[in-house]
Design a protein that fits this description.
The complex is a heterodimer of chains A (about 450) and B (about 280).
Chain A lengths: L7 H10 L1 H20 L6 H8 L1 H10 L8 H30 L7 H6 L2 E7 L3 H15 L4 E5 L2 E8 L6 H22 L1 E8 L3 E7 L6 E16 L6 E12 L2 E10 L4 E3 L2 E10 L4 E8 L5 E4 L7 E2 L5 E8 L8 E7 L9 E4 L13 E9 L2 E9 L3 H20 L3 E10 L2 E10 L3 H18 L5
Antiparallel strand pairs in A: 1-20, 2-3, 3-19, 4-5, 4-18, 5-6, 6-7, 7-8, 9-10, 10-18, 11-12, 11-17, 13-14, 14-15, 15-16, 19-20
Helix pairs in contact in A: 1-5, 2-5, 3-4, 5-8, 7-10, 8-9
Chain B lengths: L2 H25 L2 H31 L12 H23 L5 H18 L14 H36 L7 H4 L4 H34 L7 H21 L5 H24 L10
The chains are: A alpha+beta (about 450), B mainly alpha (about 280).
The complex binds protoporphyrin IX containing FE.
């Protein structure tokens, strides 16, 4: 081997192309990624100081361990990774491309002599009558060959699976595509959240980073929110929001059910069911009977609200519990007399509407229901890069499979005339998974041999 | 019969298979090897039935609880044991190295024993986040990948034992139990093949997981500990494969990297739930 003097730019280039750099980067990424799984990410300073002490916290801040996957050094490592990929592909792609533009149609003597997979036959038949039959046999048992005449010899060449030479490049490209998709999503997309109280609508959402709300350009109303439980348990089976989207006063999506794993999308913005909770004061439905006249009325007060009754009386609800021992929902009420006097509070039960009649006051009350309005918590995401990421993922899976499980297989056959006989030489190669190809070649050899008559 | 009893029989079957495989190492009797192989086959068939039965049983329960049995730690460990057997038996078709069973079946046996004795076996309703077909695709691909790595790890341990002895004996043929091990060249090749099978499966597992996260939460990647650890595992095996392309890293170093990779896999699978916390509060 001659030792070539390499310039420093060559050395830099080789460094960025090298597989050593790849392996180093991969392992270094693996090891440093562990940090962020042990140290909580994006916590508050107080939490870190409590857990690790102030000195360590200062150190973490300096090394950006508290948001390490976005730190300059981690992103830099990913950048190095990409540069490595690009350089190695630029360097090696032309070599793979040569197999496409410049296939080895004619094999040299060396190939026929040195291949692991080789065979040779001699026949009395003429070259002209043998060639079409061998060509046909090759076509049937492998694939259609290309014929080339050189130096008075006939050369057949057939190949399969050339795409597998590009599997590695496709895989490498896919990583860049995925990164590109992630960048598109970061630059042109956002992650936000919004809480919508039942019956109300919003047209702004709140980004998770930053505190200016984002205008949607349309409105989303929560018509209804419900939680369904597995029978007899407190485990939620499904929580669902009915959402209506209106734009310029027109309904564009009407009462679509949104549940976890079934989001709503409009104009590239997607709403995901994520949480729920009580919103504001619940209202009671109470039926009041005037015991003197027998008149009935239904009112819907919130807790603490003073409700006027006939003849200067009034009442309000002081307290509520969804389960009063085993009696179910119960409310505590009191009545105010026309002179402003507070009368003794009493309890009414939803399950027993006649219960209060026995108390025998001026009015009797029955609790018909209690409605706690809910808000639905939605994650909101706009990610125009997500399809790029899926395309990249597809390339990665497809590319790594074709790199690992398929190989570029080539077969050469040369027919030459010697002393009135025909000499048939065969050679074949696979660029990966040779043992399996060796079996295939045995079969191929037999097929070819069978077509040759008058073997000498 | 209920699926729980059948799972106990499966565990017993793997125990017998394991003992037979170890007996094979000691006796070198090909009859014992065949018996071990057959018991493993019967075991995996029963295992398949038992998983199907548990699936069916979940639909017989009141309250619309029915779901594929891949939803909590117990079910995943049972499924993991099943995938180990499947990958092992598939590789066995190609390599027919029965002694490998002695180093792979124990993974499945210990997984089943742990699941049957220590984990909560009751069928539980799915929380809303898990009610998705993506769960099925994600779990199946991830675990087939993990199982391939388990086989690679078992073979790598054999490799390290054998190469250590071979080097000490200066090339003279080694007898005893090690004599029946496949040659180091074959062990190295099985290690490589298994990782080549596992790597694309893990890749699909990560992609389906990302697709699901995107569908349920609106982010395909949020660097939560489970996701990050799956990426760590992916990095380790990607490094393994590239180290191999250079031809430098075959043999001992490849075996070690394979064992490290499997340790990371197990941490990704169990350690993250038991030690760290995150979105995948899967079992715990
Ligand atoms: C799914 C992941 C990957 C797969 C399946 C894969 C596959 C391959 C294959 C098959 C080769 C050999 C190419 C050949 O022999 O023609 C290769 C080489 C290489 N890969 Fe990857 N790769 C992956 C990820 C990466 C990553 C993440 C990097 C990061 C920088 C990388 C950098 C390289 C480099 C530098 C080479 C050497 C190219 C050469 O010398 O031909 N690969 N890869």
């Amino acid at each position: 081997m001659t030792i070539k003097k390499t310039s420093s730019t060559d050395r830099v280039w080789d460094f960025f192309c090298s597989l050593k750099l790849t392996i180093f980067t991969l392992l270094f990424l693996a090891i440093t990624s562990i940090i962020g799984t042990i140290i909580q990410q994006d916590g508050s300073p107080e939490e870190y100081i409590r857990e690790y002490g102030r000195a360590n916290y200062e150190l973490f801040k300096k090394l950006q361990f508290t948001d390490m996957y976005h730190s300059w050094w981690f992103v830099g490592l990913l950048g190095l990774f990409s540069v490595n990929l690009i350089c190695c592909s630029i360097k090696n792609f032309p070599r793979a491309w040569k197999f496409v533009v410049n296939p080895m149609l004619v094999a040299g003597e060396g190939t026929f002599k040195n291949s692991t997979n080789k065979a040779e036959f001699v026949s009395d038949e003429s070259l002209e009558s043998l060639t079409p039959r061998i060509s046909e046999a090759l076509k049937n048992s492998f694939t259609k060959p290309v014929l080339t005449e050189a130096d008075g010899k006939l050369n057949l060449f057939a190949q399969k699976g050339i795409y597998s030479r590009f599997g590695a490049y496709m895989t490498h490209l896919s990583i860049l595509v995925i990164m590109l998709g992630a960048i598109i999503g970061t630059v042109w997309g956002y992650k936000a959240y919004v809480n919508i109280v039942e019956g109300t609508e919003i047209n702004q959402v709140w980004p998770r980073s930053g505190n200016q709300p984002i205008d949607l350009g349309f409105s989303v109303r929560c018509d209804k929110f419900e939680v369904e439980y597995y029978p007899g348990t407190q485990r939620p089976k499904e929580f669902r929001s009915l959402l209506t989207v209106t734009e310029n006063g027109k309904v564009v999506i009407d009462k679509q059910k949104v549940i976890v794993n079934k989001p709503l999308s409009y104009k590239g913005i997607t709403f995901y069911q994520s949480s729920y909770g009580p919103a504001g004061n619940g209202s009671f439905e109470i039926e009041v009977t005037d015991n003197k006249g027998g008149d009935k009325m239904t009112v819907n007060p919130i807790q603490g609200q003073k409700v006027p009754l006939p003849n200067g009386f009034s009442f309000s609800v002081d307290d509520f519990t969804p389960s009063y021992d085993s009696y179910g929902p119960a409310a505590k009420l009191h009545v105010d007399a026309p002179d402003g006097k507070h009368r003794t509070p009493f309890v009414i039960l939803q399950k027993f509407p006649q219960f209060d009649v026995r108390r025998g006051g001026d009015f009797s009350f029955a609790l018909k229901g209690y409605k706690q309005p809910q808000y639905t918590g939605l994650q909101v995401a706009k990610d125009p890069g997500v399809w790029v990421v899926w395309f990249g993922s597809f390339l990665m899976v497809f590319g790594s499979m074709s790199a690992f499980f398929f190989s570029h297989r080539r077969v050469w056959i040369r027919l030459s005339q010697e002393n009135g006989k025909t000499r048939i030489q065969m050679a074949a190669s696979a660029h990966r998974n040779q043992p399996a190809f060796a079996l295939k070649f045995e079969d191929l050899k037999k097929q070819i041999e069978d077509t040759i008559e008058n073997k000498a | 019969m209920e699926s729980g009893q059948l799972f106990n029989l499966v565990t017993l079957g793997y125990f017998i298979a394991m003992v037979l495989f170890i007996t094979y190492l000691a006796t070198r009797s090909s009859k014992v090897a065949l018996a071990a192989h057959l018991v493993s086959l019967v075991g995996v068939i029963m295992h398949t039935l038992a998983i199907g039965m548990r699936w069916y049983e979940s639909y017989q329960m009141p309250g619309g609880v029915g779901h594929a049995p891949l939803s909590n730690l117990y079910e995943s460990v049972v499924f993991f044991a099943w995938t180990i057997l499947v990958i092992y038996l598939l590789l066995d078709i190609k390599y027919k190295q029965r002694s490998v069973g002695a180093f792979v079946i124990p993974f499945a046996f210990f997984a089943m024993t742990w699941a049957q004795l220590k984990l909560n076996t009751s069928i539980e309703p799915l929380v809303p986040a898990l009610q998705s077909n993506w769960l099925t695709y994600h779990v199946i691909t991830c675990f087939l990948g993990y199982a391939a790595f388990a086989v690679a790890c078992g073979v790598s341990i054999m490799y390290l034992i054998k190469i250590g002895k071979e080097e000490k004996s200066d090339g003279s043929p080694i007898g005893g139990i090690l004599g029946i091990f496949p040659s180091v060249r074959i062990l190295d090749e099985i290690n490589y093949s298994a990782i080549m099978i596992g790597f694309p499966l893990l890749t699909i597992g990560i992609v389906t997981g990302a697709a699901w996260a995107n569908y349920a939460w609106g982010t395909y990647w949020s660097w939560d500990p489970k996701e990050t650890w799956s990426l760590i595992v992916w990095f380790v095996y990607a490094a393994f494969l590239h180290a191999r392309f250079t031809r430098g890293w075959v043999g001992r170093r490849a075996a070690w990297l394979s064992i490290i990779g499997f340790a990371a896999t197990i941490f990704c699978y169990l350690g993250v739930n038991l030690v760290l916390s995150g979105l995948h509060s899967y079992g715990g």
